[in-house]
Structures are given as C-alpha cells and as structure tokens.
Amino acid sequence: MSVTLSESAARHVARYLENRGKGIGLRLGVRTTGCSGMAYKLEFADAATEGDLEFESHGVRVLIDPKSLPYLNGTELDFVREGLNEGFRFQNPNVKSECGCGESFNV
User: Fold this and answer.
1) Are 39 and 104 in contact (CB under 8 A)?
2) Which of 65, 95, 96, 105 is most buried as measured by Cβ atoms within 10 A of its Cβ?
3) What is the DSSP string of 43-67?
4) In what side-by-side order are the strands of the sheet with 76-82?
5) How far apart are CA 48 and CA 56, in angstroms?
6) How far apart are CA 100 and CA 105, in angstroms?
7) Segment holding 90, helix H or strand E
8) 73-91 pLDDT, tens per residue?
9) How many Å separate Cα 54 from the centre of its chain?
C-alpha cells in the first residue's frame, strides 16, 4: 500500500514548509461529505500522531490515518498550473465516480 507525490507536488510542499518555517510533511485523508460520499482532506502536518502511516515521496513525508488508506491506496497527488489556476490534483485509481462539481467522490 502506498501514496505518492509527483515531483511537482513534492517541490511545492517542500517550498511551502520551508517558507512556513515549521512542519514535518503533508497529511492526507478522506472524510464523509458531499453529494458523492467522500472528500479529500489535505493539510500541512506539524507532528505525526499515533497510528499515522507514513510514506516518503521525493523527500517529502506523507502522513495518512489508517482509516483513510484503503480509499487512498495507489493515489498520486500532483500539483498543476493551468493558466492562472494552480492546485493539487488527486489521481486516485479507487474512484468509481465523482460529483459534477468535482468536490467529492465515491469508491
């Protein structure tokens, strides 16, 4: 089981953590919400919590709670720039459908 970051996402996270002056990595998870059932949680982690599963991708630590891993297994998090827009994009092989607005998904 694993979750990875693209090189672009890892550079973005590392740069942000450096500018922020603290933090150990990126915390990913899922929560129940939205019209399709689940949504991604993404935040910068200042410390690991008990039970966190930890992966390293391109030198960046990725922390995931054990309940979220089955929904995120095999996911690559990318950081993309399209015109004036930029942001993270989840490439999750477990997703069966997404809502029209793209905020939630179903596995």
Assistant:
1) yes
2) 105
3) EEESS--TT-EEEEETTEEEEE-TT
4) 4-5, 76-82, 85-91
5) 13
6) 10
7) strand 85-91
8) 999 999 999 888 899 998 9
9) 12
Give CA–CA dist 72/45, Å, rounded.
18
Backbone angles phi, psi at 99, to 5 degrees: -75, 165
Q: 96 pLDDT exceeds 80?
A: no
Q: What is the pLDDT of residues 53-77, one digit of tens each?
A: 999 999 999 999 999 999 899 999 9
Residue type, 10: A
Instruction: Give the single-character DSSP code of 105.
Output: E
In degrees to the nearest 10, what's the CA dihedral of 57, 58, 61, 64? -20
Contact 38, 58 (CB under 8 A): no
